[in-house]
Amino acid sequence: MSGTMQRYYFNIYNDADALDEMGSEHADLAAAKAEAIRGARAMIAEHIVNARPVHLHHRIEIVGEDGRVLAVIPFGELITISD
Q1: What angle do CA 7, 9, 10 make, to 5 degrees?
Q2: Higher pLDDT pick, 44 / 2
Q3: What is the pTM assigned to this prediction?
Q4: What is the number of structural domains in the chain?
């Protein structure tokens, strides 16, 4: 393992779209996905705690340094709703 970190950008598409201009370093795409999932779940939880609607079509796109979308994390895939 070389120990080289890669920079990934997390663009958020929700009530207020936000493009990540700084990015953050992660060991690999799997680590970046794990971070995106944690962040998305935190946003969902914040909406629930504040009695705001959760829109399951919102998403985080993970973008590489070359500008390519490497993964999409849809909010709807991160929670289970049951009655």
Answers
A1: 140
A2: 44
A3: 0.87
A4: 1
